[in-house]
Write a structure and sequence with these properties.
single chain
Length: 174
Amino acid sequence: MTDDQLRTALAALRGGDRAAFEDIYRGLSTPVYTVLLRMTRERQSAEDLLQETFLKLYRQPPGEEVRSPRAWIFRVARNLALDYLRAARPGVPLEGADRAAPERDHDARLDVEAALDRLSGEERALVTLHLNGGLKFRELAQVLDLPLGTALRRYYAALDKLRGHLSESNGRTI
């Protein structure tokens, strides 16, 4: 869903158009879910937070004054995930029990998942918000409350770290 399509759909949603909400959900639920899953590392929690994110959007869509509605939606999702993670009891692992631990000979997707799991929460958020969420760097900085230069520097540092983890898991340099 393009930014223009999103703005149009949000205007219709503010006018009470339920079909517009369904369009927004279809267009953004997968990248929002992916970001939430990477942050919480739990499928059920990510699904619950996804529903909470879109329920918040449905009940109170951002107004026309919001310059980047895509960033607004991802910020809501991120904040809900952070609240969830803060409320998690100490000692309870954040990894999903239904995800098998990757082994060296698993496919590349499992290698990437394992490498992402080795990043800090902020690093994972930077990478997934940009790659999976499709946020531009300016939006990324806005969502994470960082200056643009800091967001760029940390994003590229996270990518370097990710490459290093992937190199280790494959036994070669990338």
